[in-house]
Amino acid sequence: PALPPGTAKQQYEYAFSLLRQREFAEAERALTAYIDIHPADPLTGNAYYWLAETFYVRGDFRQSAGYFAKGYTNFPKGNKAPDSLLKLGMTLVNLDEIDKACFTFKELTERFPDASSSIKQRATSESQRAGCN
Question: What are φ and ψ of residue 50, in 5° steps?
């Protein structure tokens, strides 16, 4: 099984521990199982983000973009929502979808004016790097 028995939090922590160990394929399986088993759990928004990261670090930007978008769409007020938009924009740049990336960076700054300064600074620099207006 992709996840050990336990509470939703314990299962999330197990999946996240695989990511920290850089076991990306195993983390992908565990996070996918977590999302399937706990679709409405508050940690599921984080699980989508980290699942997208497993693809991002392996250079599968198409899959990564899909999961960053799903995480944001399904958990627009979740604590990983600003991070998901930032990484979605960065992923879209990697896919050479610059217009969509620029729209995503703009949405991040408009929807999350109170995002952390590091998120806002990174969004600004990534937006400039992409040539957004």
Answer: -70, -30
Average pLDDT estimate for 54-64: 97
What is the residue-wise DSSP string for 8-58? Answer: HHHHHHHHHHHHHTT-HHHHHHHHHHHHHH-TTSTTHHHHHHHHHHHHHHT
Is residue 45 a contact partner of residue 80, using CB atoms and an 8 Å limit? Answer: yes
Question: What is the sign, positive or negative, of the torsion defined by CA atoms of 77, 78, 79, 83?
Answer: negative
Contact at 8 Å (CB) between 107 and 92? no
| Lookup: tokens for 69 | 């978008």
pLDDT on residue 133: 79
- The alpha carbons of the chain give a radius of gyration, in whole angstroms, of 15
For the chain, the first-to-last Cα distance in angstroms comes to: 48
- Longest CA pairwise span in the chain (Å): 49
